[in-house]
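Justification of computing resources. Each target in the renewal requires a structure prediction run like the one illustrated here; the chain below, 674 residues long, is used simply to show the kind of job we budget for.
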Amino acid sequence: MADKEELRERNLLAKERLISLEKEREIYDPYGEYFRRGAGFLLRGSYEDLKPERYDTAYVNPVYAVSLFGTDMGRLLSFLAYELTAVIPFKAEEDLRLEDITILYEVFLEVYTAFCAEMTEDSGKTVSDSLVSDVHMILKSFVTDYTDVTVTDRVADQVDPSRDFAKRIIMGSDLTDLSYLDRFGEYVTEDTRKLAGFINSLSEDEIESMAETFTQGFIKGFAVTGKDISKKKTVNIRYNLGFERLVRASIESFAKAGLDVTIFRKPLHAAVRGGLSRVGYYGDLVNEQMDYDHREDEALFLDRAYVERKLEVLENAYLRVKDMAAVFAGPAVMERFGKKEFVPVNHDESYRLSEKQSKLKTELRSRASEIQNKYIHMDERSFTIISYPVPETGPDFPEIFKETVTINTLSDEHWQEMQQHIIEELEKGDFVEIIGEGTNRTNMRICLHPIADIKQESIFENCTANVNIPVGEVFTSPVLKGTDGILHVSRVYINGLIFKELQFTFKDGFVTEYSCKNFDEEKENRRYIEENILFHHETLPMGEFAIGTNTTAYIMAKRFGISDKLPILIAEKTGPHFALGDTCYTYEEDTETFNPDGRRLVARDNEHTLKYRRDDPLKAYFNCHTDITLPYEELSEIASVDAEGGRHVIIKNGLFVVPGTEELNKPLELFTKG
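Resulting structure tokens:
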């Protein structure tokens, strides 16, 4: 890290140079205009410059940049413009992020200098291949060389509670004065201000109850998995702006349990962004198409040397904070739902990873995960996730919020009993059949692990409200061999994106074919799935099969017409779901877990993890787990089938038919009658 005094001097010199650059005419337009506008943005830029209504003529738009500067230089300069947008939030916490600001100033000036050396009024008006190469090298070196800043800071933010910029705002502000939201340096819309105002209108008892649900869910996650939380000292809260009063109460609740809190911002630098990942706290998304257009900017710099450099820095970063990493308990995530649907547009002008780079990215994710797990042991940490609506959900927002709070606090014990009846029926079979209704083409066969002793062993986990709030699912890790068929859903919301007519074909547990109908060209549909569900893997296994039982949440979504706005956290509880990728027990296969009835869970591995995880974990794990939910109304039947062909039906025509689960149908029947 740079010396503070030296850093201030570098920053001041760079700022003075930017001020003078704004007035220069050394380089002919449109390049000169690019640098003058870029300097102005670095000095005074705001989120107004990035809004969709200005995107058509913004350099962050690769389509516009390529139209001005050609494909190669246009992509490079658009990448740089996008990278510079981080200066806005960095300036909000300037004391801590002075180096981040300075390196952005300096890389911009370095590119400008390269242009000045070649492109003057007397040098002609064509961009040489050598200049393209020089700019490419400057930007690639910037990302690679500064990983010791960007990656190291990212690791420290996760586990070091002294890096408390956001926490100080939350705990020290008058939250009734909504101007506090502007101190974060994030983009904040009127919707978020309305949300914060609504949260302020709730009673102290309501806030404390919601915070208790959130924090106790996290703590119970340790208890139900037999992990010792007394060894831990910190928990990371991840959330969207607007929930500060609830977050403050949660911080206080965690403190009573002996846990300090870290709260870090979403990733900003290219070296830590990783596609559309937004892990951390953040405000509103100023321009989702802009983020989508830059989701694969890694294509500019991703090669073998970069992979090795980043992994080396990552290892050293964790070594620096190894004591804090050892007492890190995991993330407590507060999600929001109800934002307007984003329908992305694919642009050829955007960077795209090559096939070789896609494989490198997959390798990087796997090796990075292995390093993290060395310092933050998966079998010693836990997590929890909860979700609430935002005003943009619609005019019924207050009622939806109230019902969501009710759903988040449904009785564990009552659901546990009903789900136990379902598990008993499922465990009578060798495999489960899932058949779609009407136009739904789902016809899946899920093979189940054998049970040696039904009194002592179980293959479906009875999942109540701890790590995943709200209550409501039973799940297993399928046997891959013999897990075959078609999974189809007409419309589903995954990782913030809508998928239409999504379909996967499985053979022996692995995806063999996939399609959707989001775009006119099949090539683009396949690419969309490859990027956002397969995450550049050639195939993925079915890591989980589950049956969601929260019909109350399902009917809430139907009644208010928000099914397509539900986060996967709630959506997965509203029907059977299938996860592509790793099992739910990744890195914890050897940690014994028991159902509430005392039986040991034995379906923790599949053939793929068993083959590789002890000797070659890089091959064992895919470092992704994406749930796809089939709604009840698209479901004809779920039945467990035994060796003699006997069918033990769980759901028939969208209703539960297992004795003891009749109450699950009441919301469905009331909605139908209504």
